[in-house]
Design goal:
By secondary structure, this protein is α+β, with helices and mostly antiparallel strands. Helices cover 19% and strands 33% of the residues. It has 1 helix and 7 strands; from the N terminus they run H-E-E-E-E-E-E-E. The strands form 2 sheets. It has a 4-stranded antiparallel sheet, with no helix packed on it. A 3-stranded antiparallel sheet has the order 1-2-3, with no helix packed on it. The longest helix has 20 residues, at 2-21. The N and C termini lie far apart (86 Å).
Length: 107
């Protein structure tokens, strides 16, 4: 009986260590925000904006960012429904979700 209890305890400890390293609910290609090196401004691409009462989040080059986070030395200053403003060594940069050329004047 003692061997079974000890085996179950060891199995429990082992499984805790395995799942502590990997969250099974995390997407397979998830990447932490680890980009600290400078990036070329022309390579910054706004992929998504999420604006709600509780939070404002953007995805730039595949990295999920909120106000105050940085990417390539540029800090996220403001997040709007269609754009994000970055401030840093390159000055003020505004990335748009949709290219401005999509909007055309009505004639």
């Amino acid at each position: 009986m003692n061997k079974i209890i000890i085996s179950l305890i060891l199995l429990f400890v082992f499984l805790q260590n395995v799942y502590a390293e990997h969250d099974p609910t995390r997407p397979a290609k998830y990447v932490e925000n680890q980009q600290a090196s400078p990036v070329d401004i022309s390579s910054l691409e706004l992929g998504l904006t999420l604006v709600s009462q509780d939070r404002r989040v953007v995805v730039i080059n595949g990295y999920s960012l909120k106000v105050g986070d940085s990417i390539g030395g540029e800090r996220v200053e403001t997040i709007e429904s269609n754009s994000v403003r970055l401030v840093g060594p390159s000055g003020n940069i505004t990335l748009f979700l949709l290219d401005k050329s999509v909007k055309k004047e009505v004639q």
